[in-house]
Amino acid sequence: MMNVLIIGTGKLGYEVYRRVAVMPECHVTLLDHHRHEHDVSLATQLIGDATSVEDLKRALVGIDVVFSTVGITQAETFATALVQAMDEVGVKRLLWTTQFQINADQISEAMYDLANREFGFSREVETNYVAGQKAGAAVIKASDLAYTLLECHFFKYTDEADKLIVESADNAVSGGPLSIFSLATLIADMVLHNQDYPQRELVISARSQV
User: Fold this and answer.
1) CA 71 vs CA 2, 23, 48, 60, 174: distances in Å
2) In the predicted structure, residue 210 carries a pLDDT above the cut 60
3) How far apart (Å, rounded) are the C-alpha atoms in residues 71 and 86?
4) In this structure, which of 17, 58, 116, 122 has its CB flanked by the most CB atoms within 10 Å?
5) pLDDT for 5-27, tens place per residue?
6) Are 192 and 20 in contact (CB under 8 A)?
7) DSSP type of residue 22
8) Separation in Å, CA 128 to CA 28, 67, 73, 133, 206
9) What are φ and ψ of residue 137, in 5° steps?
10) Res. 159: pLDDT tops 90
């Protein structure tokens, strides 16, 4: 039996839960700051603060793999607490979602335009978001955890099926925004077969359907 902790049960975390929890070889524990409004009866649900080392340590007992999708803001704070808690409990395997531009020296004008055109993000919002994600990722990179950073392109909150591109973070991103539906399916496979994803950083985007 593989024990999986999912931290954050927003749209992505919930979709990953739905895919992993039905697998007979897995048990899922969910940690979030509030009780989920949807059915999570296949999991052990814990209410706690993902910036609290003590709450995280309580959730990590007996866990084999952690998938974290918190930190849209305050990513560095979330990452710092999680690294400490995992170190103290002795859990090593972490899949951490972050943003695909964290390794860029600067945000390109094309990405600023895309963020504004498709999602209504101002330059300031996009700049601050990427900087925050970069700071959180730096904490994970400095740890001795067996981590994989999932550096995701912009999300599309749809159920459309995308053909995903998964590539080394050494490469420039070659795809575009990706659907939550498709990303959750990929991440569920990563959780279930995490030994097949030894890379420290993966950039994930979607092929154009045009």
Assistant:
1) 25, 27, 15, 18, 25
2) no
3) 17
4) 17
5) 999 988 999 999 999 999 999 99
6) yes
7) T
8) 33, 24, 9, 9, 24
9) -65, -35
10) no
Confidence of residue 71 (pLDDT cuts 50, 70, 90): confident
Q: Which of 41, 43, 15, 16 minimizes the C-alpha distance to 29?
A: 43
Please, are residues 22 and 192 in contact by the beta-carbon 8 Å criterion?
no
DSSP state, 194?
Answer: G
CA distance 94 to 64: 9
Residue bearing tokens 């990405």: 111
Q: Would you say residue 209 has pLDDT above 90?
A: no
What are the angstrom distances between the C-alpha of 166 and each of 42, 63, 85, 169? Answer: 29, 26, 29, 9
The pLDDT, as a whole number, for residue 158 is 81
Look up residue 62 and give its amino acid: G
Write the pLDDT tens digit of every residue in 28-69: 999 998 877 788 999 999 999 999 999 999 999 999 999 999
The token pair that represents 14 in the structure block: 């919930």
CA distances from residue 149 to 21, 22, 160, 209 in whole angstroms, order as listed: 22, 25, 24, 26
**53-60 and 75-89 helices cross at what angle (nearest 10)?**
50
